[in-house]
# Entry
Amino acid sequence: MNILVVGSGIAGLTAALHAHEAGHAVTLVTKGSLGDGSTGLAQGGVAGVYGPDDSAQRHADDTIDAGAGLSDPAAVSVLVTEGAERIAELIARGVRFDRTAEGALQLGREAAHRHARIVHAGGDATGAAISAALIAAVRRAPITAVEQALLTELVVADGTVRGIRVLRDGDTTELYADAVILATGGAGRLYAHTTNPTGATGDGIAVALRAGAAVSDLEFVQFHPTILASGPAFLISEAVRGEGATLIDDTGRRFTFDSHPDGELAPRDVVSRAIARQAAAQGRPVRLDATMLGAETLATRFPTIDRVTRERGFDWSREPIPVTPAAHYLMGGVVTDLDGRTTLPGLFAVGEVARTGVHGANRLASNSLLEGAVFGARAAAALAMPWRRVPAPPAGVSHPMEDRGSDAPPFSRAALQQLMWDEVGLLRTHDGLAHALGTVRTWAATLAAPTTTTEHGDANLLLLAEATAAAALDRTVSVGAHHRVDAAASADAAPTRPRSSILETV
# Structure
């Protein structure tokens, strides 16, 4: 079979390698260069290597708890039971995870994990190490790489995806295949503050929407709690708090315990909202205090963060550093089954572009790289299988067009990002969401058909903004990363432990 893989993060690279090793002819298409995107920026590690008193069941429990009880148990079971094989595969492909003096894999802990089960490479350069190893493997294989090619549309004939349309060097080209695997990442550039690279404009979800594929859970946008609040967005890994760093207010008090008994190691949505509220109350950013870890540990365990914080004028071994939340990860996306199939025959989706059901309402730290590897491999394995129908979720509520008219400011990407940050961000209300939806629809109605890369990005972001705001209006309760300050908490919140075995019930 001829296979097109769109995207070159861990999910796309894994899918491409597995498809090639299964005997398929593979072309990998990427918006920028191989290695661009979110994977190479990932400071956190890969969850799923189990130490003393830990297990796949406990990993599953933590995943579902972080997801506020909305994770799909079957998808979680796949993730935690196949994760060890994928980590072993990464090691075999050349990823050098950090090890103890005795040679064992060094296991770290991050927020909402009850155990140390996360492997890292280069301290805080895990994504870069994984990306480099997988790209090297792709370059060694007879896989055709098409770089600097923007996905603009899916080619659909008789209800089946037959290829893609791309914009490259100003020209539009159609590429045909027996199946297409989307691995285009998320849409962090919807927001004024984000950890995502500039290319994260939701291209894969947008083209899937336009082609009629089902999407779901777009209201669940994860905001990473700790971005350095000085200069361009720079993520301070959750692993820093896992090692013992604390979040403090102006008086030095650890305020996050006001919101959750796990304090700094509570789920990301809880910590992010606690930070936002405290920063608003005191009129300046809260601070992350890692001084207790000492200069040597910080430089050795977190070399990238240590270098960047010092370049920006902070000695974090001697003083707490200012931090703020930023849009980080999209839990929703193109609806798939456990093998990456979407509701459109011939189209697969893996990684952040997909809604596998693993993350529920809030992603557990260090599950994203694992998800990309696990489901990228599963999608490649499913290529040779007969196509199975994927049921679409129920349609959302239809929200009447609100004509903003002259009330809407002129469109710009910056204006869109600020609108989403203000109204569809950490704290949401019905009126704010309705205002955002009406404004976005007014903007979308004024745009001409896109011809350039920037214009396509704007169009994709507007489509995702409309779908995200509409989904957030539909979910009238607060759950996970979706927080409606004008509504009660959802009755679907995560059950308290203990629970029956996830792995035994799926």
Remarks:
- Residues 494-502 have pLDDT under 50 and may be disordered.
- The two ends are 32 Å apart (CA to CA).
- The first strand starts at residue 2 and ends at 6.
- The CA atoms of residues 96 and 214 lie 38 Å apart.
